[in-house]
Amino acid sequence: MFLAALLVASSFTPGMHAHNDYYNARPLHDALERGFGSIEADVFPVDGTLWVAHDTKELKPDRTLKSLYIEPLRRWLASGHGGRPIQLMIDIKQQGDLAVDLLEREIEPLRPWLSEFSADGFRRRAVTVIISGDRPVEKVRAINPRRIFVDGRFHQGNTTPGDWTLAPMVSDAWGSHFRWNGTGPMPEAERAKLRALVQACNNRRQTLRFWGNPSNLEVWRELRRAGVHWIGTDQRPTLVEFLATPER
What we know:
By secondary structure, the protein is α/β, with parallel strands linked by helices.
């Protein structure tokens, strides 16, 4: 069962999403140790494998998905961790069809811990892999058993399936819905829209995340009050401290 099915908006603490995790000195480990439940890595297919970078200028042969994420996560899980579910988001920057083929192969060492959907239904395990970016939705839909899932969108109905077993999460640009940036009170109309988007995801058993939202306490406070499931940030210590402080 995904997080959205468990929420009570007035009493829950959002999950933390580590945006651009690979820019940290200790990718993956820093996020895990700080309690982040969702970790994001951008990838490019290069020479039959997936390399981690935000753009092609940053590509380096020693920074692969396998070396930075798959193998360290396998060791972490094998050492007895894994009681807390982890969402591994893979943001595919180009060549989505090829990237999914490579990703299926590269996550194989994590297979005992991967969430899976098959004819027998959905089985939640320690790690749920979700692709974003260049998402070949129909290709993923056809995978059986499916151990890769899709990041949905609000503005593209055909890529935001109501079936949470294909798209367990919906992500969208903050600026596509809101103009408020944390200065002054949030307009009531925007606050109502935010809560409506959360409710729409809850109704479909999907979680909700925004990208590009201002990273400040005022915006985070509204996200938490509305029941947004994931708050993404590059400012990890500040977000950890904020969410550790009870709402007053």
